[in-house]
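Hey all, sorry for the wall of text incoming. These are the two entities for the joint prediction.
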Amino acid sequence: MYKVKVLIKRRQSILDPQGKAAEQGAKLLGYNNIKEVRIDKQVEFVIDVLDEQAAEIEAKEFCSKLLSNPIMEDFEFSLVKINGN
Amino acid sequence: MAIKFGVVVFPGSNCDQDAYYSLKKILGYQVEYLWHKNHSLNNSDVVILPGGFSYGDYIRTGAVAKLSPIMNEVKEFAERGGIVIGICNGFQILCESGLLPGVLLKNINLKFVCKDVYLTAVNTSSIFSQNINRSLLIPVAHGEGNYFCDDVTLSDLKKNNQIIFKYSSKDGDVDNSSNPNGSMENIAGIMNRKGNVFGMMPHPERVCNPLLGNSDGKLVFESIYKSLIK
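and here's what came out:
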């Protein structure tokens, strides 16, 4: 069994209005040095298979078919073997 | 033969009834609902993916709805040249499913925008916009309507005349002040290259009944109907 952690990041070229709003909030708090805030998504799940390569293929397909949209996002993920099967 | 419209109902659709009502009661067309778990379009000539918040807009707007069983039939229908229209969330679903290029990002000001806007048809010969030679007043109601695509796609859209509606002033000026959501080049609606799949963020189905004081939305549906009975 593998624990998967996915980070889905909006492309740098695409404006992140939530990041901009957070940046404005930082300014309102007086943190004038904070810049380039980007708000990304992290998704975690478990894949119940024995083979690491099979887990990797399945995780990659899940990320590209549903969790991210290639027009605006990139993703990266890590696999960690956990107890179980 | 009567032209039949099919309105797909996803969990979380909320403009399905507006579309059904306007098509049936105001325009007098034949229409039926199509449950998203169905595997048939019941011989519809035009399929409408309505507005709403399918699957709660989770992950991304339209991301889960594109996987609903009926979407296989919708894709096959579109490939055969069938007419598919996505309104608001329906437009988002069409982009997510790859039937239309691009994506609808969060509105640039992060606000849910709900108001009447003017649209100008920049292509007046498509199935969806025939003879629409004046600006239309149509409501928008969305949080993610900021159309975006890469530069190559944008130049293709222009080259192939795929941009149908742009946000404009009443007089048809396409400028920043008329853009409600930050959409690239004020894009409000586009079609695919073949010209049979169309998506728009504004809601024509909400402004068909003259009792509401505005029936500009009828022009879009009438355009489609006329193209089919020719």
